[in-house]
Specification:
Chain lengths: 412, 412
């Protein structure tokens, strides 16, 4: 059961001019489920992405990067193709061949070159990709292409997700109103490092490619790179940002202009909603936990401490039990690798409750207050380091019996 | 249920001349359980230790370090005192006072100074230590002091352990036969960094203090620092090595002498048995897993990769399910932070079964072979990097429903 997450209202998902989506049931791993998605872009769209830092990066990630770098500057990306059920990772040279075969098949149907197609996969690792089923399913995706298909697209990329993840936003950029719509998938193997799992965000804004790359990096850093479910970085993480350029506006080309900053922030807000939806739907999650680390010397040390807390199985199981066993949070803080940390200076809050200070329990702390907060489904842990002016916020979930069940049964 | 671990035969635990142990039921957290241990040393014993690197290190660890450094060279440590039920960690200045009060109480009973007593605690974090119960329990420990009390001592330091952990060994050093006997506790919050949880090993060998320090560091590195249950480094880790000097032999003073190396290796063997017993009794463990990483450029990178595999919740739950979902091991390998790793060169074995090579599945690999190995209660994962001559071996366990249950219920 996801934490305070509902399926988006399909009508709330705004079409993005120049972007059409089509899905199909291609029987890639299991029958009777949408498992193939094509996102077709009109000519002239710009695309930028960030990818997993895992050294075992999946074949489609390798091919997507190659295609983005090989693309003739006069040409544009015409389609993205996404399959679930099989990650095409840990599949060696055959996997690269299968990813390229997928692109070639779609390029032929769309009348473009292979390089103009970007492939994405998610699912089981180290199984051969059933590429024939994918190419056989592509015509059905093409037949299904529609601008108002974002909800079904979000469904088609789900694996262990219990709900589709999609959101829309509009922003006023100069005199134009631009639309931003995105989808994402992910519930486990979530500890993004540059990007998470799969996220696709499209806007009709007109923006130069360098600025689009800046926007995708910014949104990844402040949204997807701030979440963790289990500390495992996937082989297939990719977060893609599409700008179709169909909005009636001049192209944004100045990274410091208020218009670009407004667009970038609107995109980051959409990415944040998607990232938080992934945590809310975290495998076995029963609680949504924000971890704010403040007063650090650098953002980096704040993130280090935040992730040490967010990754600790002992902290996560204590949240599952609603047990204010808060010494575990102190232990994780001391364990984050910040070697000159002065524990005497640290304050620990659960929401508004001051739990610990001066290296020990706050004398005024009442277990009943901790218990009250721990029973909530949304909790903020605040660690104040009192040694500088930097801060960071991360989002995570608890660890339950169901996390073990889901991951012990995933393949069977 | 621990993995292939039984309680030691009390008769197999050899007394160490110059070392007596006494236990008591002091009602520190729960009634009717042994929760207090005194280890009394004859005059002239040498003691060295390694301790947790957690910045929130517990009050008794701070005091033990102080006492070791403050000790008059002409004097010797006369006692160690260990309580369970309360870690005296995250307890600020009061905690330091309580640890010192414990030492003072025991020093008075033994007729020595406080500095000659070393305190250790394990149990719940961030609760005030009930020091009056400890001092009230000390006379019963004194009355119970016996050289052949190692089994009951191992029982007295248990927390979530299901079985006591103790072992003995004898080694021929020159013409003397020396005895080495040790006990340890630990089942969760296990990812030692310098030392683990609590381990106490005593020998009657005569050895200089610098060499004793070398031996404790060596044994920690090759035994306790090679295990992990859940990746959480405790606030209270301590591994203490005692040399009573009662064996009829000249004092060892040369770190390169064959006699010292033989003693050091015998101590390391005892420490390894204790460390492996901790993993076998890991919270909720159903499988004992050795992870060998070979062919690395440095031992450090081999350990990094080994721990990335050993800490991955996805790998650990796959072992619990006996599911040869081995892509998760490749993903964890790629995720270890060895940024120039060439995944094309890596071979992955499960026991003798070659699972993956050249960045993908071994064409000859049969799922049935992987399944056969995964069903065993003892499994060796071997990752061959093929880029150098270094290697490392670590020991860990799987992650089961019971891990979550134990840690969600630990305080209640």
């Amino acid at each position: 059961m996801p934490v305070n997450l509902v399926a988006p209202d399909p009508k709330s998902l705004l079409p993005v001019a120049g972007v059409a989506l089509g899905v199909a049931e291609a029987n890639i791993r299991k029958p009777n489920r949408k498992d193939l998605l094509v996102i077709r872009l009109d000519d002239g769209a710009k695309v930028a992405g960030v990818f997993t830092q895992n050294r075992f990066c999946a074949a489609p990630v390798v091919v997507t990067r190659q295609h983005l770098s090989m693309l003739d500057p006069a040409a544009s990306i015409r389609a993205l193709v996404v399959n679930t059920g099989n990650a095409n990772a840990g599949t060696g040279k055959d996997g690269l061949g299968h990813a390229r075969q997928t692109c070639a098949g779609l390029a032929e149907l769309l009348g473009c070159t292979s390089v103009q197609v970007l492939p994405f996969s998610t699912g089981v690792i180290m199984e051969p990709l059933p590429v024939e089923r994918i190419t056989a399913g592509l015509p059905a995706c093409i037949a299904d292409l529609r601008a108002d298909n974002w909800y079904r697209a979000a469904q088609a990329i789900m694996t262990t997700d219990t709900l589709p993840k999609a959101t829309s936003s509009q922003a006023k950029i100069g005199n134009a109103t631009v639309t931003i719509t995105g989808i994402a998938k992910g519930a486990g193997m979530i500890h993004p490092n540059m990007a998470t799992m799969l996220g696709f965000v499209a806007t009709d804004a007109r923006v130069s490619l360098p600025l689009l790359k800046g926007a995708v990096a910014h949104a990844a850093k402040h949204a997807f790179n701030c979440i963790t479910v289990d500390g495992d970085t996937s082989t297939n993480d990719a977060f893609m940002l599409i700008a179709s350029g169909k909005a009636g506006m001049d192209e944004l080309g100045d990274a410091h202009s208020p218009d670009f900053v407004a667009l970038r922030d609107a995109i980051t807000e959409v990415a944040t909603r998607l990232a938080q939806a992934i945590v809310r739907d975290g495998e076995g999650a029963t609680k949504f936990i924000a971890i704010r680390v403040e007063g650090g010397r650098s953002e980096d040390e704040c993130r280090k401490i935040g992730f040490a807390i967010a990754h600790s199985p002992l902290v996560k199981t204590a949240f599952f039990a609603s047990d204010p066993n808060l010494g575990r949070i102190l232990a994780a803080t001391g364990n984050a690798g910040v070697t000159d940390l002065d524990v005497e200076k640290i304050e620990l809050y659960l929401d508004d409750v001051l739990v610990a200070r001066h290296g020990g329990r706050n004398p005024d702390y009442q277990e009943a207050d901790g218990q009250r907060v721990m029973k909530q489904s949304e909790i903020t842990v605040r660690v104040v380091l009192n040694r500088g002016g930097s801060s960071a916020v991360l989002w995570t979930c608890d660890m339950s019996h169901d996390y073990v069940s889901i991951n012990a049964d995933y393949r069977s």
